[in-house]
Structures are given as structure tokens and as C-alpha cells.
């Protein structure tokens, strides 16, 4: 689980633990959050470890996957949740900002998937779950780079799913919108009445979908919207 220490990542980590999984919780800087999630998983009777590493960098990914395989065994379920958003107008956006957002949100999916895929293919079983965003589907006026990166996640999800469909590996995406996380709570411009169901989503509602995708062998190449009706497109 990349970026698994808080928010949606933590909820998915705990939901998978409830479903019987041992979980590696990746983090970059917020070690305390990751270790708190690990503690919550172990109280459920599952094994867990906190694994440091910047998943947008290939050397970190190699070391991270090696540490997880040593500590917990082969990676059967990969959840690509690491992400970062920056709210900038086109005039404010720099080349460096563009590259950073693409690298964190999209390149990380490529690097982590390529790292664990050989083992999944050899075992003829694997589940890859990528976190995208409604911004990929509806667009964003203040985060073009983020929207582009998350749209790339959807395209990569479909491509990997098509390539791996006959090998026992499914690849799907979850597309949340306005889930009650730290980021949403700190944004004064976001209100529950923006959502048709009239409330923010709960992180556990994303965890439920992750468990479904991890347990189902016939769903692949899909983007599941968890958005309270905010975006109704396919």
C-alpha cells in the first residue's frame, strides 16, 4: 500500500487487513502515521510493516519492494495510492511543478507495477488497484497537471488490464471525489452541498471498494467512481 499511513490509504490498509491480508504501509515522511496504521493492523491479528520510500524514484522502489518481500512475503495485492496535488493556475504552473506532479501521481504507478509484476505473472495471480481522481474525468481549472496525471492512471489501468487479462492479474482503479480527508477538510471552498448525495464520502467507503476489487477475479480494467454522484460518466 503506497501512501498508506493516513486518509484513504489508511482506510484501505485496514479494510484489507479485515479481509485477511498482511499489509505493508509505505510512507515518505510521515513515519508516525504509518506506524500508527501498522499498530492498528496488528491489533486485528495480521502482520504489518512500515516501509519508507519515495515511490516516484526507481531506486527507492527497488529497495521498498525488497524490504516488503523480506518482511511479509510476495506481493499479491498492490495498491497504488501515493499522490500529491498542487493548486496552481496555468500562469503559476512551472515546468518543475508539472514534472513533480506527474512523477508522484503517475510515474509511481508505473514503477511500482513494474516492480511487482514479474512475481504476480509467475504465480498467475495478482491484484493491482490504482487510485485516480474525479479530476481525471471532469478536469480541474486549478490543477491541470494533477488532472493529467490521474487521467494517465486510468489509461495505464486499462492498458495493464488488457495485457494481463489472461494471466490471472486484474488491474482496476478507484476514483474518489470529496472524501472526508485532511485535504478536503482544510479546503474552505469545498462544501457538502457540491455532492448530489449531500455529504462528503467516508474513507471506509473507498476501503470497501478496494476489498471488492481484491477479491473479484472477473472485474478488470474498470474505474470505480466513489463520488456520491458528483460525476456520472463512464
**Sheet with the most strands?**
4 strands, parallel
As for the number of domains, it is: 1
CATH fourth-tier homologous superfamily: NAD(P)-binding Rossmann-like Domain
How does CATH name the architecture?
Answer: 3-Layer(aba) Sandwich
Strand order of the largest sheet: 3-4-5-6
Number of helices: 8
What is the terminal-to-terminal distance? 26 Å
Outline, from the CA principal axes?
A: globular
* CATH domain topology: Rossmann fold
Number of strands: 6
Q: What is the arithmetic mean of pLDDT? A: 95
Radius of gyration: 17 Å
Structural features, described:
- The chain is of the alpha/beta class and 234 residues long.
- It has one domain (7-226): Rossmann fold.
- 47% of the residues lie in helices and 14% in strands.
- It is built from 8 helices and 6 strands.
- The chain has helices at residues 7-18, 31-42, 58-72, 95-123, 134-138, 144-164, 182-185, 203-215; strands at residues 23-27, 48-52, 77-80, 126-131, 169-176, 223-226.
- The strands form 2 sheets. A 4-stranded parallel sheet has the order 3-4-5-6, sandwiched between helices.
- Helix 1 (7-18) crosses helix 8, helix 3 (58-72) runs parallel beside helix 4 and helix 4 packs parallel to helix 6 (144-164).
- The mean pLDDT is 95.
Short description:
With 234 residues, the protein is α/β, with parallel strands linked by helices. The protein is built from 8 helices and 6 strands; from the N terminus they run H-E-H-E-H-E-H-E-H-H-E-H-H-E.
